[in-house]
Amino acid sequence: MLRVWQISGVELAAIPAEELSDVLALKQQLRVRKGLPICLQELLHDGIRLQDSSKLGAPMDVQLVLLSLAKGLEAAQELREAATKGEIEVVRLLLRASTDKDSTNELGIRALLWASSNGHVQTVRLLLESGAAQGFTAREVGKTALTWACMNGHGGVARLLLEAGADKDSMDWQRKTALIWASGNGHVDVVSLLLESGAAMDLIDQEGSTALHRAATNGHTEVVRLLLEARISGYPQAPS
């Protein structure tokens, strides 16, 4: 059995040694079991820092030191991965360690975009509270966090982003807004939320379609009804 101890002397974990090939495998286990970011973990044995490639013996005691400051690109990548999966405690610790919350991958996608796209409400809330910028878009498709959330039907995330001041009429490279995406995909609750927030109904995408056209073409009758009722009620239209 391999035992991991905190600096305070409290045992953090006991893991069968046969499950661990090296120090990196142990760090991965501690992330899964305890929500500890890999990049913030430093493991010591008899006061000596263990390299990720170091082999582990059994029985063996190691001490965990949790770093207070994140290390550059490695931490930013782990933040994006954690945001994608909604690993709230990992995200919380990385933000506390001053990880760059707006760092991007090669496609220009930030942690907030990943969390929004996958519907992780608590992670999105935490990132917004930390000051993550939501106006940025994914470089190759031009979608904001709100667009991703609405496209995928994540109403809870969309509401958070709107309350935080998201541009409800932002267009991606296809000139599609969040409302056009939500309407075309049949996300009734999201469409209702966007209409209540004042999203413009008559903006046209690059193929000449409005939100109503997209909903009707795809057979989303409830969305069509909402949009028609909104038109009668005088919801915002596209600027003339």
UniProtKB/TrEMBL annotation:
<dbReference type="InterPro" id="IPR000626">
    <property type="entry name" value="Ubiquitin-like_dom"/>
</dbReference>
<dbReference type="InterPro" id="IPR002110">
    <property type="entry name" value="Ankyrin_rpt"/>
</dbReference>
<feature type="repeat" description="ANK">
    <location>
        <begin position="141"/>
        <end position="173"/>
    </location>
</feature>
<feature type="domain" description="Ubiquitin-like">
    <location>
        <begin position="1"/>
        <end position="57"/>
    </location>
</feature>
<feature type="repeat" description="ANK">
    <location>
        <begin position="207"/>
        <end position="229"/>
    </location>
</feature>
<dbReference type="InterPro" id="IPR036770">
    <property type="entry name" value="Ankyrin_rpt-contain_sf"/>
</dbReference>
<feature type="repeat" description="ANK">
    <location>
        <begin position="174"/>
        <end position="206"/>
    </location>
</feature>
<keyword id="KW-0040">ANK repeat</keyword>
<feature type="repeat" description="ANK">
    <location>
        <begin position="74"/>
        <end position="106"/>
    </location>
</feature>
<dbReference type="Pfam" id="PF12796">
    <property type="entry name" value="Ank_2"/>
</dbReference>
<protein>
    <submittedName>
        <fullName>Ankrd17 protein</fullName>
    </submittedName>
</protein>
